[in-house]
Amino acid sequence: MLEALITILLALHLLCVNAAAGGPLIAAWLDWRAAHGDQAAPAAARYLAAFSLGGLLAGALLGTAIGWLQWDTSYRSLWLGPLRYKLHWAGIEAVFSLVLLLGWWRWLPGSAGGRKWAVAVRGLLALLASSNLLYHFPVLFSVAARLYDQGQTAGAVLRGAGFRQQMAVGETPALAVHVTLASVAVSGVLLIGYAVRLQKRDDTAASKLAIWGGRWALAPTLAQLPVGLWTLAMLSAAAQTRIMGTSTIGVLLLVGSLTAAFWLTRELAGIAMGEIARPILIRSMAALLVTVVLMTGLQRQTRVPIPTADVPGRIQESTP
After folding, report:
1. Domain-embedded: residue 311
2. What range does the domain containing 277 cover?
3. Of the chain's two ends, which shows fewer C-beta atoms within 10 Å, N or C?
4. pTM over 0.85
């Protein structure tokens, strides 16, 4: 029951932080189009910017809740021991991105046109906020999960060189690329969601925005196939076996995730080519949600903690 709750919360957390990291990239492009006279772009840019800001705040709250649910002796030792330095700086980086997103959102114009230099500066702010989130947080939590599963929850504090060495181990590089692509795809689907809202008002901009959103989401979704194979190849033999044979739940989640991903790709391809009927747009959003939940469950299944008794570095829970 606890595992199911953590999986759902983690899926929602990932959707929120994906919106926070990917939204500024698409919104910056929309801002550029608005500066060149596209009347459909300004409101869409502000919509994505607001979602990015809200996603960062909601993602932080959900992440805190997930951490609290897992806060046993070993997990606490990991974050207050080896990862203490990175935890301190993660908080600073999160606040830095929040300030950037807030200032950038407030600066976005409400109408088309404007000065080109202002668009360039706003684009730089959006890129900085997005890259700051993508560089620090997926890698940090991937390293934390691996250290916890391997029982390395005590020892020297990891700083610059030591942490960079951990960044290159196992599936962490592949996961970082996966999160970057997912952030763009989720934000593209958010733009589709905005188009659905406009369709209710018979806004002529809905069709254009839906197609833009489909194209922005389709490209990274297609790119996830080789990245997924890369991630699978970098998993430990035990994790690979768990999702491809020994665990019934793992096998079902793998098959379900692939099926949902192909469903999402089919819907996005149709939208990108101009199929923008309301049911299709809604199906694409549903397909994204199902895919993220199943992929999150699959990722949880790949984690194979080493038994406490086998690892001297893991702190054992005391029993009453």
Report:
1. no
2. 173-306
3. C
4. yes
The per-residue pLDDT string of the chain (320 residues; one tens digit each, 9 = 90 and over) reads 788 899 999 999 999 999 999 999 999 999 999 998 899 999 999 999 999 999 999 999 999 999 999 888 999 999 999 999 999 999 999 999 999 999 999 999 988 877 888 999 999 999 999 999 999 899 999 999 889 888 888 888 988 888 888 888 888 999 999 999 999 999 999 999 999 999 988 878 999 999 999 999 999 999 999 999 999 888 888 888 888 877 888 889 999 999 999 999 999 999 999 999 999 999 999 999 999 999 999 988 887 665 544 444 444 443 33
**51 assigned to some structural domain:** yes
Contact residues for 214 (Cβ-Cβ < 8 A; gap 6+): 188, 192, 268, 269, 270, 271, 272, 284
Spatial CB neighbours of 11, under 8 Å, sequence gap ≥ 6: 292, 293, 296, 297
| 192 and 262 belong to one structural domain | yes
Considering Cα of 163, then 169, then 172, then 177, what sign does the dihedral take?
positive
